Predict the structure.
Amino acid sequence: MENLDLHKLPKHIAIIMDGNGRWAQEQGQDRLFGHYEGVVSVRKVVEAATEIGIKYLTLYAFSTENWDRPETEVNGLMSLFVDTIAKEVPDLHKNNIKLHFIGNLALLPEEAQKALAAGMEQTAQNTGLELIIALSYSSRWELAEAAKKIALQVQNGLLTIDQITEATLSKNLTTSDFPDPELLIRTSGEFRISNFLLFQIAYAELYFTNTRWPNFRKKDLIDALLDYQSRERRFGKTSQQITSN
Ligand code: IPE
Ligand code: IPE
Ligand code: MG
């Protein structure tokens, strides 16, 4: 941690928490056991992010595509979400963390929707880490929803077509209250984005690790941050332009 440059931290880190199922199967256990252990990693990473001074942390917990998994796994995950929120919110609140959920939440069971709403409400006034959980989330779904919202504003005369810019799109995404992530981490050795934050990660630094999510700890987060800090973020410019600034 002492090697981290505290002036060069990303404001927003997004994580694709992958590898729970494989981790469990490697222990000769049921996939759900991996999801339970994954919650421990979430707790550790939230603690570490708070300690390091990260402002926004987005965690991909369940994709729209994950609804197509076997029913027992989906049901197990839904119960896990409800139980975890109920169990963790008091501590999150104590640590001044503000909780958000993004995704097509209407698809969640009513019990889960209630738990999410209660968690957000309880932590709404907090001013520390903003913890954003992507649940039943798909970036293409989000973009289609944004297109509908913008079309409606045009139809209602609130916006003209010429006024539509990149910022309009950004403002109509579920992430409108948060800056774009500067760092995207994916665990468990897969090199893909799996329908996550496609618009928002246009200039994010991508970091892939073989570590399975249930094994991910503060040290792994720091490794990712050190790697991030070693990169030159050019945004299309030349290296010379960047270093002469
Ligand atoms: C990530 O772990 C958690 C969810 C997608 C819900 P996986 O369940 O995808 O684990 P692997 O990739 O099968 O190992
Ligand atoms: C992405 O992981 C979604 C989450 C981590 C919640 P998946 O395991 O579902 O992604 P694919 O199927 O390997 O692309
Ligand atoms: Mg996976």
